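User: Quick sanity check before I run a bigger batch. Here is a single chain. Can you write out its predicted 3D structure?
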Amino acid sequence: MISSNSGHERGVFAVYPYRSACPQSVWAQLIAETRSEIFLAGYTNYFLWLEQPDLPQTLRRKAEAGCRVRFLLGDPSSDTTRLREQIEDVTLTVSTRIRITLENLTKLADADGIEARFSALDDGPNHIGLSVFRFDEHALVTPHLARTVGHDSPMMHIRHSEEDGMFGRFAEHTEELWSRGTAIRAAA
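Assistant: Done. Predicted structure follows.
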């Protein structure tokens, strides 16, 4: 018999067949309990603004308390975005979902400790296929399935449990994308 909490699997806290199956309370709790860093590296991140009450003020308070808050987004005018819009073929397009996040980030343009970047154009295909949302030692990871919008893709809740574990691998992935990204300049 194989143990579900042995070896590298110790870092897997929960698995959801759909991102939308993860209770909003899990997201709220992770955001509330984070002290050092929130890194939202979904291609659009739009659903967070809709599902988390008063998210702009919550993030502002987090940043004021010394928590680093980062957003990594896809470029709404990139070829990767346009291709994904054709593949998904839904009314709420990828570029519109990114613009929802950009509009909300504008409300936070004057907040210290909140940063935003577009992933590099060459990294678009690497970014759009995997969303990683980090909250200190926890991460919610969504590998996007072909022709499926984010809320219909599976999601794992992982936590840092060992140096070379899953958490570290996803953290390295997002840091690499961040390092090549382009700062988003929002009007204050």
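The chain is about 35% helix and 20% strand.

User: Great, the batch can go ahead then.
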